[in-house]
Amino acid sequence: MKLRTIGIILNGVTGRMGTNQHLARSIMAIIAQGGVKCADDTVIMPKPILTGRNGDKLKALAAKHGGLAWTTDLDAALADPANEIFFDASGTLQRAGFVEKAVAAKKAIYCEKPTATSTAEALRLARLCEQAGVKNGVVQDKLWLPGMRKLAQLRDQGFFGEILSVRGEFGYWVFDGFTADQPAQRPSWNYRGEDGGGIIVDMLCHWRYVIDNLFGEVAAVSCTGATHIAKRVDEAGKPYACTTDDAAYATFRLANGVICQFNSSWCTRVRRDDLLTVQVDGTKGSAVAGLRKCWIQPQAATPRPVWNPDIDQPIAFNAGWTEMPDATTYDNAFKVQWEMFLKHVVTGALFRWTLREGSKGVQLAELGLQSWKQGRWLDVPALDGALAAKG
Predict the structure, then answer these.
(1) Each residue's pLDDT tens digit, 250-282
(2) 3-state DSSP assignment of residue 351
(3) Which parts of the chain fold into alpha helices (H)?
(4) How far apart are CA 129 and CA 137, in angstroms?
(5) What is the number of other CB atoms lying within 10 angstroms of the CB of residue 323?
(6) Alpha carbon distance 77, 265 (integer Å)
(7) Residue ranges of domains in the chain, CATH in brackets
(8) Secondary structure of residue 40 in the 3-state scheme
(9) What average pLDDT is seen over the chain?
(10) pTM for the complete prediction?
């Protein structure tokens, strides 16, 4: 066994997502399991260093995870040749500057989505990495959620027959903070457009790679956004005006004829199986997947309802669905992609989810905002160099 230690700069991971998914459940989990084993008997062992602006937060987070290295001097961390990977989970508006510095230092780049707030900027960052010859990737975690993997399994086995339509429901009620015992559970910048917030910019990036990889290439979009709640309370307890969308209602027409509808909202109360559910209807069967579970109904088990509003519904529709068993042990979705990226950097293993591929999500979000403003369908043109969709 050959141990290969690799330094990783984790920038901006003091936030909820960075701390929980990237640091605790990915990097620290990889260390705890003894590293990432490669086919050539190499074991990759991450050695993280935390960077950011707030020294107190960094110090506390580093101590919580066993005394990790940390610094507020990003330039010094980038200058250290032992640090081969730069990961960024900071705000979207700050990402470009950090990526530019890391590319100049010849680090491999891995970052959260969206990579930018405009397609032009996302493509510029992708070209920057390509021209510098540095390996790069963007987080597309939902592809490795157990529920999405089960949908892919059903598709590959021909369960659906011809896929007709896909319907996604995402979201939950985010408290506005005006009630003392019900503080907001999302950061205030999410609701300020000037800070890079907005659910269209956030979620249409996700829906792009989910749809492209599972169902087919997005060819056109129609999107309506809304700012349902005009005022909220920030982390300091001060009211502020919401200046961007907190809900999005989008329809996507795919190149293969499939119609997808995705509703995304931070202003909805959940009466479904999970915070995200995706229903796929096909000629031979249907499936409904949440984050982890998936229920199926084949053609032979489909009930035959008759419209009659004068009596209580005699069919227990939920009872006609069968839960899919787990085909394997499913690891944390972020961790799965982290392991793939580490293998890509160390061994050159294939990694499809580059910054150029991530720019497709930014493109769809940008077109979604334009569709809302113009009140019409917009075509989604191909981006040069992006991967062809599967489906």
Answers:
(1) 999 999 999 999 999 999 999 999 999 999 999
(2) coil
(3) 16-17, 28-32, 55-64, 74-79, 92-104, 119-132, 146-156, 199-214, 333-347, 355-374
(4) 10
(5) 10
(6) 38
(7) 2-141+333-353 (3.40.50.720), 143-330+360-379 (3.30.360.10)
(8) coil
(9) 96
(10) 0.93
Q: Please, are residues 383 and 123 in contact by the beta-carbon 8 Å criterion?
A: yes
- Please report the pLDDT score of residue 389 as a whole number: 40
Q: For residues 178 and 181, give the distance between their C-alpha atoms in angstroms, rounded to a whole number.
A: 9
**Consecutive H or E run containing 3:** strand 2-11
Sole residue written with tokens 């009466």: 271
Distances (CA, A) of 301 to 282, 286, 304: 14, 10, 10
Torsion of CA 210, 212, 216, 217, to 10 degrees: 140
Kind and range of the H or E element at 240? strand 239-241
pLDDT digits over 154-190, tens only?
999 999 999 999 999 999 999 999 999 999 999 999 9
In sequence order, the β-bridge partners of residue 261 are 167, 251
Residues in the chain, overall count: 391
- Per-residue confidence (pLDDT) for residue 390, from 0 to 100: 41
Taking alpha carbons only, the member of 359, 369, 358 closest to residue 200 is 369
Q: How far is Cα 148 from Cα 169, in angstroms, rounded to an integer?
A: 14
Would you say residue 368 has pLDDT above 50? yes
CA distances from 272 to 203, 234, 318 (A): 19, 29, 11
> Residues 28, 34, 37, CA angle at the centre, nearest 5°?
110
- What is the spatial distance between Cα 24 and Cα 48, in angstroms, rounded to a whole number? 11
**Per-residue pLDDT tens over the stretch 109-155:** 999 999 998 999 999 999 999 999 999 999 999 999 999 999 999 99
Class of residue 354 by CB neighbours under 10 A (exposed 0-12, middle 13-18, buried 19+): buried
